[in-house]
Specification:
Two copies of one chain form a homodimer.
Chain A lengths: L8 H5 L6 H19 L1 E2 H6 L1 H10 L6 E4 L6 H6 L4 H4 L29 H15 L5 E6 L6 H10 L6 E7 L11 H10 L8 H4 L3 E5 L5 H11 L5 E7 L7 H5 L6 E2 L19 H9 L12 H15 L3 E5 L10 H7 L3 E3 L4 H13 L3 E7 H4 L3 H10 L5 E5 L16 H5 L6 E3 L4 H11 L7 E4 L23 E4 L3 E6 L4 H15 L4 E4 L8 H7 L3 E11 L4 H9 L5 E7 L9 H7 L4 H13 L1
Parallel strand pairs in A: 2-3, 3-4, 4-6, 5-6, 8-9, 8-10, 10-11, 11-13, 12-13, 15-16, 15-17, 17-18
Antiparallel strand pairs in A: 1-7, 14-16
Helix pairs in contact in A: 4-11, 7-8, 13-21, 16-18, 21-25
Cofactor (chains A, B): thiamine diphosphate; Mg(2+)
Pfam families (chains A, B): DXP_synthase_N, Transket_pyr, Transketolase_C
Protein name (chains A, B): 1-deoxy-D-xylulose-5-phosphate synthase
């Protein structure tokens, strides 16, 4: 194998140019083998093997700085830059992250995972180079799907007047995670079809020079094109067309589902389900809370439940609009559902800021918008949630998925700060359902009231179906639900950690004989001060349990409320940090969030 | 006066077209008179009088929806839509906000103040219209300076494929608040100079149709152009050129300083300083803490101190770079300073996301970036601070100005949530100086250490100069400073509220005979747990005092720390809300943050 000799870009450069096509085949085979066993970003990596070979063949990394947008497509780059074994040796598959990572290699400049950041980040590298009087190349790779994010535009605009070496390779595979959306993509299409010539050109309008290469999977043509740009003295875009998923037929054919994929059988492309492991405490609590057999059926996920509920509303009410920002599958809006919803579905592309603002405008103008997203990405719309939506107090509905310790666990995809972010914005009502019935009741209320923006923190620990309809009047804001009144100790368990709070109550009863009061607050953005004050009569300790970061979170508000009183309060959650590729139960244990540790704490606290 | 007859757009339409030029003159005179007495956005409003007359002459507001970006230029619109007296009657000058406001008028769709939002907000209005099967016009006005913000681009991109009526008027006056920056502006210039024709066109690249009108201050030509676009069935940009500050010579000549201006003398253009009122408690505390006569001299503002300090560093160290995002005067980077700093100054335009990412890239590549901003606007870069900067832990420095109850008091320009936002991001070190000496020591440390991103919350209550050099070693993170050790009660006063905490200590001593411990935490992003734990020996009550929102803030962390203990904690600050055009002392009083109320609280709490 040619690949065996490559431990650095210098080794790559020793291979004759006419053998690089063969090397690409080898790398592609390695990728397919690892991805089948391990899961990961299939389409993006298979499409850019030749590009990354060519980049390292022409440029001199790490002197020349190579920056990959999202960096989910950087596997070939990793293989070439000394990390081959993380792809060829199954025992080392987990050694490297799925993204560029400066802790792994001097060839990686940033830990990246969110889209549309590469040009802005690299603008700083270029500026620092120029200040130091150096002359190396700064090269960025950005996919067409990432172009729609505001930060990418800002980056083009800023670099467009820098008048210095800056090479941006636009990797155009004709789609985002799902279809591309936006007027810009008409221009990209025109440029593709015109072989780089069209009546207008976004990139030159931004102040960049522009080159076009049709066959972006031809390594020799790529090398020629990049050689021409090396050491250029101004910003230039090289627009190349690549085939997403190239070399693995299922990924070529079904590009959306193969953007990221679980482990699969190479021959059939079918998903391989790992044998279920032992449930951890949180998962066991969720399972224990799950009384209804429905949980086992096809609808037993909040994503599918959401999609069905929304499709039903769309069908019966023309005012309903579902918005997503590039990730419709977050709410299980399959191609079929998107087509069926028609004009009542809007994918704005990767553009969370506009998604929130559009939702505000829709709500203001009489429609019923529901914007569904992954918590980690909506961080990009913090100001829009505050300014465009909440100052205006328009009744848009936000569905926050996978904000949880049990959400995505790459450091760049964490959503542990959603409560710190959304829980502290005035006018916003942020709700935390503990089961499917509450979730549906919250959806019904949120989409019929016209008073406030409402966000719902969709549980990420698995769906609980209690079989009992929720008849709560959610217009009575900040009314907590006390599911059991005991005495001495009260446990406030928020959202998907409520079943865990139930388990804790059981444990306290068994081990300490405590009849703990159990509270399901439902509202994250306010306190039920009457209920909390009433606890002072016959409780001395309140525990709070939340699925996210403690700092800025919900528990701190309870602590502040009781601050002037004799009530003791202990907050449980995750200490402020950026954990990477962690195991949830371990992270919780490190933070003392286990039934054993919490029971011990209570034992000590009530003895004082 | 023609103006006297106008109480609605219907009245405007009764005026013959050839008299509208006269009306524009009258409105301009009214604006100058009010602005001279009241202060406000001078340049933007004087430049768009004809445009707003033409819009209301052609369109049928509020059936047709008119949305103004930032809406700082909407005064003529307000005058035409029934709010004339707020501009002609001095006793009513304060009745209306400086921005569009749905609470004032059905002709206003959003409460707006941040830039670059209009197209995205209006995309929702248009979508709701289409869903309802209606056919009115959706019209937005956006200035050239606002185009550089990512949300504007996202909006263009999304609307560019909507294929429906959407009219965007690009009001091109050739500058932002300061100079325009970005590659896009080369394209705008080419379009201006080519009478709407250039080799490429940003707006058509976004999928918009495009029209050009050179004389955007000619009301009859504007009317003709808008009539042509009315009821158009697809998105179109009308690019017009206007003169910022038109009709008031000083504002025409010195556009940057007349973008927004304090009250002024019309004849000379000189600023009129209001007679100083009685100091409120916070201001008095700040004054009392100010021992040095230097406070009275020319350098006695944190803005000027910052600028001088930064210019000195720039001169002596080529690695230093100052970044601003469209508002260089935030850190007193005058035109002269910008020119002198040369390539060591970067104004990215209104593009906070890229400013943060660029700072991260600069720091990663060996430079020393200092990004200065108003707290309210950096909210747009929440995700970039977290992802691009803090996950990568690059040593960029952020200077946060006017995050304070004493900052801008328009609801759209509040920065009361900066602690909730930046105080809860992992890896970030957020510092709160209480005086000039601490500020300088923090700047020195922040720009020499290479371990973490550091943000500094620059005080907004006025500069305190103690005359005592600060020799703190800030590399010992989260080490609080105890300036006095008493017993019983401890007061933690953060940043610019530390002098206020000193006043409270004095009051507690005088009224209750309490020798309160005084703590200046300096670090917002972490607790000095050793010092706090030590207080438990001989204190029963800790008060926290912060200049911002309580929820998600600093005090809650202290409450959570002491939650499991017998220590009582009382947090002082502002309850979560969106106050608008408030008086700081009143807002504080409403929240119980007065010396009298706090003293009363202590009296009660220690008696329990």
């Amino acid at each position: 194998m040619l690949l065996d000799s490559i431990n650095s870009p210098a080794d790559l450069k020793k291979i004759p140019e006419n053998e690089l096509g063969e090397l690409a085949k080898e790398i592609r085979q390695v990728l397919i083998t690892k991805l089948a066993a391990h899961g990961g970003h299939v389409g993006p990596n298979l499409g850019t093997v030749e590009l990354e070979i060519a980049m390292h063949y022409v440029f001199n990394s790490p002197v020349d700085r190579l920056v990959f947008d999202v960096s989910h497509q950087s596997y070939a780059h990793k293989i070439i830059t000394g990390r081959r074994e993380a792809f060829t040796d199954p025992s080392k598959y987990d050694e490297d992250s799925g993204f560029t990572n400066p802790e792994e290699s001097e060839h990686d400049w940033f830990n990246i995972g969110h889209t549309s950041t590469s040009i802005s980040l690299a603008s700083g590298l270029a500026k620092a180079r120029d200040l130091a009087g150096d002359h190396y190349n700064v090269v960025t790779v950005i996919g067409d799907g990432s172009l729609s994010g505001g930060e990418a535009f800002e980056g083009f605009d800023v670099v467009g007047e820098m008048g210095t070496n800056f090479i941006t390779i636009v990797n155009d595979n004709g789609m985002s995670i799902a279809e591309n959306h936006g007027g810009l993509y008409k221009n990209l299409k025109a440029l593709r079809e015109g072989n780089g010539v069209a009546s207008t050109n976004y990139f030159t309008a931004m102040g960049f020079d522009y080159r076009f290469l049709k066959d972006g999977n031809n390594v020799e043509e790529l090398i020629a094109a990049l050689r021409e740009l090396k050491d250029i003295d101004h910003p230039v875009v090289l627009h190349i067309c690549t085939e997403k998923g190239l070399g693995y037929e299922p990924a070529e054919t079904h590009k959306e589902i193969w953007h990221w994929h679980n482990p699969f059988d190479i021959a059939t492309g079918k998903t391989v389900h790992a044998a279920a492991g032992k449930l951890d405490e949180v998962q066991a609590a969720t399972a224990a809370a799950n009384n209804a057999s429905a949980a086992a059926d096809e609808l037993a996920s909040y994503e599918k439940l959401s999609a069905q509920w929304l499709m039903d509303k769309i069908e019966h009410d023309p005012r309903f609009v579902v918005i997503t920002s590039g990730t419709p599958m977050v709410v299980n809006f399959t191609k079929e559902r998107r087509d069926k919803a028609g004009k009542q579905f809007v994918d704005v592309g990767i553009a969370e800021e506009t998604a929130v603002a559009m939702a505000s405008g829709l709500a203001k103008n009489g429609a019923i918008p529901v914007y569904a997203f992954s918590g980690t990405f909506v961080q990009r719309a913090y100001d829009q949630i505050m300014q465009d939506l909440c100052i205006n107090d328009n009744p848009a509905v936000l569905l926050d998925f996978s904000s949880s310790v049990y959400g995505m666990n790459d450091v760049t995809h964490l959503s542990l700060c959603d409560i710190a972010m959304m829980g502290n914005i005035p006018n916003l009502v942020y709700l935390a359902p503990t089961c499917a019935e509450e979730y549906v009741a919250m959806l019904e209320w949120a989409t019929t009231q016209r008073d406030h923006p409402v966000a719902i923190r969709v549980p990420a620990t698995g769906m609980v179906v209690t079989g009992v309809k929720d008849t709560t009047d959610y217009s009575k804001l900040n009314t907590f639900s006390m599911t059991h009144r005991g005495s001495g100790v009260a446990i406030v368990g928020i959202g998907d950690f409520f079943p865990f709070a139930e388990s804790l109550a059981k444990r306290l009863n068994e081990e300490l004989g405590i009849d703990a009061t159990l509270i399901n607050p439902k509202f994250i953005t306010g306190l039920d001060t009457a209920m909390l004050a009433d606890l002072e009569r016959d409780h001395t300790l309140v525990l709070t349990l939340e699925d996210g970061q403690l700092q800025g979170g919900f528990g701190e508000k309870i602590a502040s409320f009781y601050g002037p009183t004799a009530m003791r309060v202990k907050n449980y959650g995750i200490q402020k940090s950026f954990p990477d590729r962690y195991v949830p139960a371990q992270l919780l244990a490190q933070n003392g969030v286990t039934l054993a540790d919490m029971t011990d704490d209570v034992r000590k606290l009530i003895a004082e």
